[in-house]
Each structure stands twice: as structure tokens, then as C-alpha cells.
Amino acid sequence: MKHRRPFIAGNWKMNGSLSANAALLSELQSGVAGLGKMHCDVAVCVPAPYLGQAQVGLINTVVRWGAQDVSNQTNGAYTGEVSASMLNDFSCFYTIVGHSERRVIHAESDAVVAQKTLRLIDAGIVPIVCVGETLQERKAGQTEQVVVRQLTTVLNAIEKAASDKGMPAKLDGIVIAYEPVWAIGTGITATPEMAQQVHAYLRAQVAAYDQDAAGRVQILYGGSMKPDNAEALLAMKDIDGGLIGGAALKAADFLAIIAAANK
Ligand code: PEP
């Protein structure tokens, strides 16, 4: 039996409108209330302009909210960027960093993802750090090499920042999301066994830094998780939840995945 609390997070990406969000948030809120006692964490990561709406709509519910990205800078002349302290003004609990759409479309490097992670930690926001290989990298047998490079850049940065402050690093203060790029938005899901193998590998990487933190850190799977495959994925030993894209936009689907995690 897993001792880590499951966590289901929705990534709305660049979707929504004030009216559509109002309906989705309200359905989500009443659906989650109908599940009774919650044994899992739930959050939605919404587009930045809708953070205020998510905050007002979800305050005093068990559903948390967050953003999908943050600037790697603290403040200043960075047109279009949103800082961690701004996200804090909306009481964001989580924020995604290193999503493959940011890494690929916006050419974000591992180093930038690590800086963003540190900005969030400094602001008291839990980073959801995404890692994952492309299809080409998987076919070339490079999956482990890619995810370890992406993850250790972040873990090294956390260790160094903590050591510079003379404090112990809190490696379970992040959530890790394994998102094979070839499975995101494609309808193709990694099999539970394929995903489990990478999750165990990621946990072992954390254990090399801190055994106790490795036992506690939540590692989510993302990539076409849907109501019909969620249960099998969530049953795997090292899969602690899901980062859900498309299915998070349909209340019924998202709630079905939450229900699977809440069993
Ligand atoms: C995502 O965008 O993080 C994601 C997992 O998307 P989808 O569930 O649509 O594959």
C-alpha cells in the first residue's frame, strides 16, 4: 500500500473563458463535495488571467488552484512575464514548470526550469516539475538519460540554493510529473508498466540525494490520462497521481479520474 497521498492536477493549458470556467469550477466543486471524505489532493492549473476567478471560486473548498508557468526572474523589465510573487497574490498553491510545451515551443532549458522552480520555492508555492522524453528520444533508448538530466538540474539547484542559505534542502517540497512528450494530447498513453519503470527510476534519483524525501515526494503521470486508464496507472507502486490536460476540461472526466484516485 502506498503511503503517499494521491494528487490529481488539471492543466487547463490556454483554454477557457470567464463563463466556461465558472461552469467548470462549479461542477468540479459540487462533484468533489459528492465524493465525501477526500483521500487525495486535487488542483487546477489555470491560465494566469483566470487565477482570481479560480481563487474566488475555489476558496473554502478542497480543490486547490495554481498557474501553468512563472518567470525565472523576480521582477523588472520582462514584458509579458508573471512573477512568483504575483502568483502568490492569488494564493496559488501549485505552479507547473518545465511542461514540454514550454520546453519545446518556448525553448526553455533545464537551467531555466530550475530557476523557475527556485522562484516558486522562495514564494512558498509548490512547483510541479515536468520531465519527459520525446518519441525520438524513447526510440533512441534515451528515456532515462533525458529525465535524469531534466530532474537532476532541478534537484542540484534546490540543493545549492538551500546550502547557500545554510538550510537543509527539502526535495519533497516539489511535485514531479513524468510526462512522456509522445503521450501528451495524443490519446496514446504509456502503459502502466512503462510509466512505473520511469517513475521508479525518478524516485531512485531523488533517493540518491535524500532517501526519506524520495519516499515522500509525489510523482505524477501525465499523458492522455483518462477515466478509462486512470485506475490502472494509479495502481502502480510509484505513480502517485496524474497531471491531466484534455480530460481536465470536462468536469465528468476529471471527476472520474479524481474518484479513481480517491478510492
Ligand atoms: C498535459 O498537458 O500536461 C497533459 C498531460 O495533457 P493530456 O492529458 O491532454 O495528454
Tell me what you see in this structure.
The chain has 263 residues and is of the alpha/beta class. The chain is 46% helix and 14% strand. It has helices spanning 18-33, 51-58, 84-89, 100-105, 110-123, 135-139, 143-164, 192-209, 211-216, 227-234, 251-261, and strands at 7-11, 41-45, 63-67, 94-97, 126-131, 175-178, 219-222, 241-244. Helix 3 (84-89) links the parallel strand 3 (63-67) and strand 4 (94-97). The mean pLDDT is 97. Bound molecules: phosphoenolpyruvate (PEP). Phosphoenolpyruvate (PEP) is lined by residues 11, 13, 179, 184-185, 222-225, 243-247.
Helical/strand content category: alpha/beta
Q: What is the chain-wise order of helices and strands? A: EHEHEHEHHEHHEHHEHEH
Give the low-pLDDT segments. Answer: none
Task: Tally the beta strands.
Answer: 8
What is the gyration radius calculated from CA atoms? Answer: 17 Å
Individual helix count: 11
Oligomer: single chain
Offer a concise description of the structure:
The protein is 46% helix and 14% strand.
What would the keywords be for this entry?
single chain, 263 residues, alpha/beta, TIM Barrel, 8 strands, 46% helix, globular, binds phosphoenolpyruvate
